[in-house]
Amino acid sequence: MDHQLTRLSKRLSYVLRHHPDKIGIQLDRYxxxxxxxxxxxxxxxxxxxxxxxxxxxxxxxxxKQRYAIEGHTIRALYGHSIPVDPLxxxxxxPEKLYHGTSHAAAKFIVDEGLKKMDRDFVHLSxxxxxxxxxxxxxxxxxxxxxxxxxxxxxSGGLFYPTESGVWLVDKVLAQFLKVI
Length: 180
Ligand code: HQG
Description:
Elements: H1 3-18, E1 33-34, H2 35-45, H3 52-61, E2 67-70, E3 73-76, E4 96-101, H4 103-112, E5 122-125, H5 128-136, E6 143-148, H6 149-154, E7 160-161, E8 166-169, E9 177-179
Antiparallel strand pairs: 1-3, 2-3, 4-6, 5-8, 6-9, 7-8
Helix pairs in contact: 1-3
The structure holds ligand HQG.
């Protein structure tokens, strides 16, 4: 994906995950907003304009599915810091899920477990490969945790799937984590 589309995608994520107020839009409880309203307000605020065609191009060319267009609405699939309810109900997760992070964070995580920090949920990856990519944002040689997701779910954890292979959960206790 070229530089311009990446920049627009980052702005879109910023607005839909963290600061809809910045461009004067309101999200519903699931994080949805009318697509045409978003486009209009986005273009009033930012210099580089966006359109439905450009958003669909971003969605097609991205390494990850970050947004969903459903009917006349758009929402970010994950990553929120503003409180939103998951649109998909919790489901039984696969046996294992993964989380990639820095060595610095891993030191705390082995004792404290995974906490949601600044976002609404802890974000887990469906595959070790995805977790490595996530972890590389913070550390060139990230630490990868394997999570006993099924066991954690059986002991009461609610796991929310997304269409992008990211799983959302409230927390993961240290007993369900192992460095691989
Ligand atoms: C760490 C991106 C200390 C956690 C990615 C992580 C992902 C702790 C950081 C998505 C901790 C939070 C989310 C504890 C967790 N002590 N540190 N007890 N528990 N942490 O960015 O999972 O490209 O909120 O390990 O690819 O890194 O933007 O979460 O390092 O899918 O679409 O606290 O965002 O997607 O960082 O990333 P984040 P994340 P996009």
